[in-house]
């Protein structure tokens, strides 16, 4: 049975009132943002991950944690293996592009399927196919016959699986915990992913040095099977299953129109586009720094990825304790992420570069969770799958464009220039969007030297 909401959390009902007002005014209530839980007081630490008290989500989170560790192991092993086979950072970027390109082209259809069919069954099917692909890559690697084109093909097919898996996974979180704990569950998922990202690269570095990449792929195949097992163990009667959307013409266009009319969806989309294209291909750049700049080998590559994950895990915990969910937070976190990447370009040593990666991981995760939460809680359940699929098209598809581009910059110029571009463009975009939003909302920055806790505030512009 789901626990009652914490007494410290208060939910704003202004969105509910706005829906009623829209109905009285003759406007479509579906275009009005749904209620967003706003925590007005700081939560006690025992409530930081309160969504784990829900049985189904706790079971799912355990299986997800194991799967994420194995997934990170496969990602690191795959990228390093391609780099060693080809000697080209661009080839690593092409691998990333092939894995994410299907989401760029077919992502909206994945969201439509998530709205129309049972999410649990979709996830079980996707995990089964992913297990078969990981097992194939393991066999090719362990037998010593693997070639770069093998990895390309498997990465592309895995990208097709992601088209169905990601929208269903995003919406399935709501079925596990319900609307009350949705924001917290998203933060828990992010923490799980980043904690796995802390452990997975470290294990991958050990395996790459000791026995090669093949066993990392085999471990991921077993982890996919464990995910299917956890999905079978869920209590069906406790799922918050939403009514499937009926099939009709214009479903994709309906989702796009819906999203473009909501600032809390549109602006996070826009920022996610800049971040995805330029700053989300960080593993490609880290491979270049580990191999060409610091000569740190596979172990150093795994360490840099682990440092990013360490910062991201701290960001996930901070996001779970975020008291207010605002559009300005999304823009600020994107800008800070870009700024940290720019600072890392000037790092004089690998130690300073690693410290910059911790801060980059923190702000990247703060941005991703804020944008994800704002988009999800701003979309009505009947259309949430399509909205999230379009968001993932931007977030994942952008990496398909940015991966080869960043790899090409790092290889033909230098990694320092590449990471400067990767951070500079999102930072500049964040400043531009902040100015536009401030003008639209008549806001201004106010500096109050007497208030040490809040030296800088955003306040309404004086008439």
Automatic annotation (TrEMBL):
<keyword id="KW-1003">Cell membrane</keyword>
<protein>
    <submittedName>
        <fullName>Predicted arabinose efflux permease, MFS family</fullName>
    </submittedName>
</protein>
<dbReference type="GO" id="GO:0022857">
    <property type="term" value="F:transmembrane transporter activity"/>
</dbReference>
<keyword id="KW-1133">Transmembrane helix</keyword>
<keyword id="KW-0472">Membrane</keyword>
<dbReference type="InterPro" id="IPR010290">
    <property type="entry name" value="TM_effector"/>
</dbReference>
<dbReference type="InterPro" id="IPR020846">
    <property type="entry name" value="MFS_dom"/>
</dbReference>
<keyword id="KW-0813">Transport</keyword>
<dbReference type="GO" id="GO:0005886">
    <property type="term" value="C:plasma membrane"/>
</dbReference>
<feature type="domain" description="Major facilitator superfamily (MFS) profile">
    <location>
        <begin position="56"/>
        <end position="441"/>
    </location>
</feature>
<keyword id="KW-0812">Transmembrane</keyword>
<dbReference type="InterPro" id="IPR036259">
    <property type="entry name" value="MFS_trans_sf"/>
</dbReference>
<dbReference type="Pfam" id="PF05977">
    <property type="entry name" value="MFS_3"/>
</dbReference>
């Amino acid at each position: 049975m789901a626990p009652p909401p914490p007494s410290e959390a208060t939910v704003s009902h202004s969105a509910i009132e706005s829906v009623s007002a829209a109905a009285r005014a003759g406007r479509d209530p579906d275009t009005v943002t749904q209620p967003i839980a706003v925590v007005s007081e700081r939560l006690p630490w025992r409530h930081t991950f309160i969504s784990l008290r829900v049985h189904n989500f706790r079971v799912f989170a355990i299986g997800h944690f194991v799967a994420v560790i194995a997934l990170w192991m496969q990602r690191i092993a795959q990228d390093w293996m391609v780099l060693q086979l080809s000697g080209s950072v661009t080839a690593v970027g092409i691998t990333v592009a092939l894995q994410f390109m299907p989401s760029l082209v077919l992502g909206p259809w994945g969201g439509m399927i998530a709205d129309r069919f049972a999410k649990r069954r979709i996830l079980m099917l996707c995990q089964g196919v992913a297990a078969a692909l990981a097992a194939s890559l393991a066999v090719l690697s362990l037998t010593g016959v693997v070639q770069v084109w093998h990895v390309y093909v498997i990465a592309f097919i895995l990208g097709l699986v992601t088209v169905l898996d990601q929208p269903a996974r995003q919406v399935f979180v709501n079925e596990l915990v319900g609307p009350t704990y949705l924001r917290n569950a998203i933060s828990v998922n992010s923490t799980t992913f980043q904690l796995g990202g802390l452990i997975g690269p470290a294990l991958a570095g050990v395996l790459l040095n000791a026995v090669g990449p093949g066993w990392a792929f085999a471990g991921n195949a077993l982890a996919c099977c464990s995910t299917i097992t956890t999905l079978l163990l869920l209590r069906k009667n406790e799922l918050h299953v939403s009514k499937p959307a009926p099939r009709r013409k214009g479903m994709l266009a309906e989702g796009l129109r819906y999203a473009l009319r909501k600032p809390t969806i549109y602006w996070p989309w826009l920022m996610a586009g800049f971040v995805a294209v330029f700053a989300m291909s960080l593993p490609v750049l880290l491979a270049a720094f580990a191999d060409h700049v610091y000569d740190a080998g596979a172990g150093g590559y795994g360490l840099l990825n682990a440092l990013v994950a360490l910062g991201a895990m701290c960001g996930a915990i901070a996001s779970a304790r975020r008291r207010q969910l605002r559009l300005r937070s999304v823009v600020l976190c994107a800008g800070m992420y870009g700024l940290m990447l720019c600072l890392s370009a000037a790092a004089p040593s690998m130690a300073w570069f690693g410290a910059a990666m911790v801060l980059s991981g923190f702000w990247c995760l703060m941005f991703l969770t804020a944008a994800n939460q704002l988009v999800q809680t701003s979309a009505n359940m009947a259309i949430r799958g399509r909205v999230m699929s379009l968001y993932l098209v931007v977030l994942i598809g952008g990496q398909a464009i940015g991966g080869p581009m960043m790899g090409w910059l790092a290889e033909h110029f230098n990694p320092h220039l590449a990471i400067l571009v990767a951070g500079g463009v999102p930072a500049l975009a964040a400043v531009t969007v902040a100015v536009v939003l401030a003008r639209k909302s008549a806001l201004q920055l106010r500096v109050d030297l007497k208030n040490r806790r809040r030296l800088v505030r955003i306040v309404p512009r004086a008439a």
